[in-house]
Amino acid sequence: MTLFTEQLYRSFQTHTGNAALKIGDKTYTYGEILQISSGIRMHLKNCSSQNIGLFLTGDVEMYAAILAIWFEGKTYVPVHPDFPLKRNQQIISQAEIKTLISSVPMTKSFDIEIISSEGLTGDIVNPPLEADPLYNAYILFTSGSTGEPKGVPITFSSLSYFIDSYHDTFGGITEKDTFLQMFELTFDMSVFSYLLPWLHGAEVVGLHKKEAKFLQILDLLEADEITVAHMVPSILNLIQPYLDSEIQNSSLRLNLFAGEPLLTRQMSFWRSFVPNAEIYNTYGPTENTIICTAYKIDGTIDDRNGIISIGKPMKHNDILLVDENFPQGELLLGGKLLTAGYWKNPQKTAEAFINKNGKRFYKTGDWCEKDGNGNIFYKNRIDFQGKINGFRVELSEIEYLANQITDAASTAVIYKDGHSNDQLALFVQGSHEVTDLRNKLSELLPDYAVPSKIICLEQFPLNTSGKIDRHELIKLLQ
Fold first, then answer.
1. Do 394 and 258 share a domain, yes or no?
2. Where are the alpha helices (DSSP H) in 326-469?
């Protein structure tokens, strides 16, 4: 497997005059970004550490810094300016970061070297250093159950295999394509939103912070400026109220969803808005390099409790349920895209990874079902399942029924384990008659599965990845 860095360098050399990145009303060419990255590389040559912190500024220098880090055979570790200082200090300490790149003045001191990327350019553009395939391309830190962030390292090799898997499933990319990049770099879906187009001379459209994400996305789609979009389903709930039934998007040719359950009801309005797009529901945790399954939404939709199938394994992935003799169980992931384990955390690694049938697998914590055609259906998180008075409750079923009754854009059921005072809480977007909703649920569910609390919210809280933030919902119950 040839590493992607060589192809990436050739693409930037070949397409110097092409538009590579657009943010707001400013467009940068491949040549301009390559020159900025060259200037950053000159400063990185004196860095002894493998892991380089990247302060997320959302500007061209941030993207150029990724190139510079990769072309020097090093690893980038995102540091989010909106995260608490203590969390960022934990990430810097765990990843042994000695150098951080930022294009803006640092208001918080991390007691490490800061490379200012503002105004840096280099006239000499050298080929990338030969990176070891087992070196990490990036390390993303996710929230840990103990409050300590967990680092997920993804190697240059795994990312190269992912690129091959992506093209095998979704086809080719040309320099005429324009990709939407709506994600923070702390979310791994950002990686293929900029890397894949750059490998082929295509343009990336990033979002600025002066306007809400969903309004920018809607404007770009209504102006027919995007051909490929990777999105989280939650964004559809925000876009739907603003859609004009007389306006359609004609430019979008490929539309992928991932990150959280995609609902059949969301497709009822979305497919008519993007009639020319091939739409896929995909699935994959950070530990298995972005996405690893895909389901094409075409004609009749296969779903369970209104949640669309996540489909079948993509190339280079081994996927099975914890017990293949049963149609339901925890989903296990293995193959060439799998991380070697959590960064310098053998305890968490031992808890999350197992050997089965002579292969190594990651325990996703997702309870899934497989049908006779091999399609996989996500049902819910194992830790989102609850037991009320000894009865197991599937939260996704309650959410589905509440969606059908209210026609709300979003619903979420939270199980709060209080031992002798366990409770189910239903959150519904919009204004609804709570007593009427509870009565209708009582007609469809056993008593123990009817939420004891129903809370209406104008908008659901979203995390930095654009997903519904269930931790914030739980706080509303305290």
1. no
2. 346-352, 395-406, 434-444
Which of 235, 257, 283 represents a domain boundary (last residue)? 283
How many distinct structural domains can be found in the chain?
2
Of 240, 221, 224, 137, the residue nearest 182 (C-alpha): 221
Which residue type, as a one-letter code, is found at position 196?
L
Cα three-residue angle 222-224-230, rounded to 5 degrees: 90
For 9, the domain range is 4-283
Is 302 contained in some domain? no
Pull the structure tokens for residue 296.
């094409």
Residue 463 is encoded by which pair of tokens? 């995390």
Instruction: Encode pLDDT of 282-340 as tens digits.
Output: 999 999 999 999 999 999 999 998 899 999 999 999 999 988 778 899 999 999 999 99
State the pTM of this model: 0.85
CA–CA dist 226, 220 (Å, integer): 7
Cα R_g (the chain), whole angstroms: 23
Q: What DSSP letter does each residue of 65-92 carry, written as one string?
A: HHHHHHHTT-EEEEE-TTS-HHHHHHHH
Q: How far apart are CA 375 and CA 126, in angstroms?
A: 46
Contact between residue 339 and residue 329 where contact means Cβ atoms under 8 Å apart: no
Cα–Cα nearest to 97, from 106, 88, 108: 88
Residue 304 has which token pair? 């369970």
